[in-house]
From TrEMBL:
<keyword id="KW-0312">Gluconeogenesis</keyword>
<feature type="active site" description="Proton acceptor">
    <location>
        <position position="172"/>
    </location>
</feature>
<feature type="binding site">
    <location>
        <begin position="10"/>
        <end position="12"/>
    </location>
    <ligand>
        <name>substrate</name>
    </ligand>
</feature>
<dbReference type="GO" id="GO:0004807">
    <property type="term" value="F:triose-phosphate isomerase activity"/>
</dbReference>
<comment type="similarity">
    <text>Belongs to the triosephosphate isomerase family.</text>
</comment>
<dbReference type="InterPro" id="IPR020861">
    <property type="entry name" value="Triosephosphate_isomerase_AS"/>
</dbReference>
<keyword id="KW-0963">Cytoplasm</keyword>
<comment type="subunit">
    <text>Homodimer.</text>
</comment>
<protein>
    <recommendedName>
        <fullName>Triosephosphate isomerase</fullName>
        <ecNumber>5.3.1.1</ecNumber>
    </recommendedName>
</protein>
<feature type="binding site">
    <location>
        <begin position="239"/>
        <end position="240"/>
    </location>
    <ligand>
        <name>substrate</name>
    </ligand>
</feature>
<comment type="function">
    <text>Involved in the gluconeogenesis. Catalyzes stereospecifically the conversion of dihydroxyacetone phosphate (DHAP) to D-glyceraldehyde-3-phosphate (G3P).</text>
</comment>
<dbReference type="InterPro" id="IPR000652">
    <property type="entry name" value="Triosephosphate_isomerase"/>
</dbReference>
<dbReference type="InterPro" id="IPR035990">
    <property type="entry name" value="TIM_sf"/>
</dbReference>
<feature type="binding site">
    <location>
        <position position="218"/>
    </location>
    <ligand>
        <name>substrate</name>
    </ligand>
</feature>
<feature type="active site" description="Electrophile">
    <location>
        <position position="102"/>
    </location>
</feature>
<dbReference type="Pfam" id="PF00121">
    <property type="entry name" value="TIM"/>
</dbReference>
<dbReference type="InterPro" id="IPR013785">
    <property type="entry name" value="Aldolase_TIM"/>
</dbReference>
Length: 260
């Protein structure tokens, strides 16, 4: 089973819609450099909602080799939910992916496992592939080890969910996000393997073997190769470094062939 490596750039709350146009143009130019072969990696950016229309137009008009998605969606499809954005609207904008359950949503917006679960279903209703984030805090790590909380979050998020409708999992230890202190590749592998075992239990070996599991948390050009060498790590969800075109391009250029 071959899994195409996936490098995802989560811009978080950075770059307005005008900046996003210049950024995507420069990024596409940087990635088109023929000296570097990145053809085996799928690359996607996750801009703020307000940039999506601009990014969509640019990617489609210039046929750029970039995917894109949103950073969140509502668990509801429409109605009196002021400030929320429906998966239906994201699908209309050609989003392929949507990040769900990022630790910043869990922490600052009180998103529970139940809400995350409802959002995964909402994404599937609209044909979007969830990039489902799970990860332990420093306290969790100390008290329960690395895998327990991410595994529990994955089980809760997928309760009643048909994984065959599409899924990417992102393992992001909370303490590694934006800290400059990435997890070790060994820890990323250990947790990714535990997550894949849960996927096998819930959805069968074939789906587990074809589902991509990313690592996220202080990924940069200097450490991406060490993560991608691990057999169960299929790419990265990149935050800060995705806002630096040279750095992000260098990350993308580390390609990897997973499986056989
Ligand atoms: O979604 C991305 C993660 O939160 C990682 O962020 P970071 O690369 O800035 O540590």
């Amino acid at each position: 089973m071959t899994r195409t490596p996936f490098i995802a750039g989560n811009w978080k709350m950075n770059l307005d819609h005008l900046q996003s146009i210049a950024f995507v143009q420069k990024l596409a130019w940087s990635l088109s450099d023929a000296k570097h072969d990145f053809a085996d990696a799928e690359v996607a950016v996750f801009p703020p909602f307000t940039d999506l229309r601009s990014v969509q137009s640019l990617i489609s008009a210039d046929d750029l080799p970039l995917g894109f998605g949103a950073q969140d969606l509502s668990q509801h499809d429409s109605g009196a939910y002021t400030g929320e954005v429906s998966g239906a609207f994201l699908a209309k904008l050609d989003c392929a992916y949507v990040i769900i359950g990022h630790s910043e949503r869990r922490q600052y917006h009180a998103e529970t496992d139940e809400v995350v679960n409802a959002k995964v279903s909402a994404a599937h209703r609209h044909g979007l592939v969830p990039v489902l984030c799970v990860g332990e805090t420093a306290e969790d790590l100390e008290q329960h080890g690395a895998s327990a909380v991410p595994v529990a979050q994955l089980r809760a998020a997928l309760d009643g969910v048909d994984v065959s409708k599409g899924l990417v999992v992102a393992y992001e230890p909370v303490w590694a996000i934006g800290s400059g202190q990435a997890a070790t590749p060994e820890q990323a592998q250990q947790v990714a393997a535990a997550l894949r075992a849960v996927l096998a239990e819930l959805a069968g070996d074939e789906l587990a073997a074809s589902t991509r599991i990313l690592y996220g948390g202080s990924v940069k050009a200097a450490n991406i190769a060490s993560f991608l060498r691990e057999p169960d790590v299929d790419g990265a969800l990149v935050g800060g470094a995705s806002l630096d075109i040279d750095e992000f391009s260098s990350i993308v250029r580390f390609k990897k062939h997973v499986g056989a």
